[in-house]
Amino acid sequence: MVSKEKCVICSEKIKLHYNPMDEWGIKGSICGDCYSKKINEHYPGEHVRVNKHLD
Questions:
Q1: Is pTM, for the whole model, over 0.85?
Q2: What's the half-sphere exposure (Cβ side, CA atoms, 13 Å) at 33?
Q3: 20, 10 in Cβ contact below 8 A?
Q4: How far, CA to CA in Å, does 13 sit from each of 2, 16, 28, 29, 48?
Q5: DSSP class of residue 43?
Q6: pLDDT at 5
Q7: In the prediction, which pLDDT does 3 show?
Q8: Distance CA 7, CA 32 (A)
Q9: Which residue of 9, 12, 43, 50 is most buried, as measured by CB atoms within 10 A?
Q10: What's the pLDDT at 19?
């Protein structure tokens, strides 16, 4: 189900709803793209997806 909410960072319609981590200091829902960017900012380095076979 697609949400009618907009991302509090980029203002795009949210296709898949993500909650920002408390330490990010963001109030509201964010989109997957912005969530990924924030993960990269706060946890730099290489990120390896696990359980990819379950997609």
A1: no
A2: 10
A3: no
A4: 9, 9, 13, 10, 27
A5: S
A6: 87
A7: 56
A8: 9
A9: 9
A10: 92
Residues 37, 16, 48, CA angle at the centre, nearest 5°? 45
Nearest one of 50, 11, 55, 53 to 30, comparing CA atoms: 11
As a whole number of angstroms, the distance between CA 17 and CA 55 comes to 17
Q: Which tokens go with 30?
A: 């964010």
Give the pLDDT band (50/70/90) at residue 42: confident
Token pair 């989109």 in the structure block, residue: 31
Tens of pLDDT, residues 19-36: 999 999 999 999 999 998
What distance in Å separates the CA atoms of residue 25 and residue 17, rounded to the nearest whole number?
17
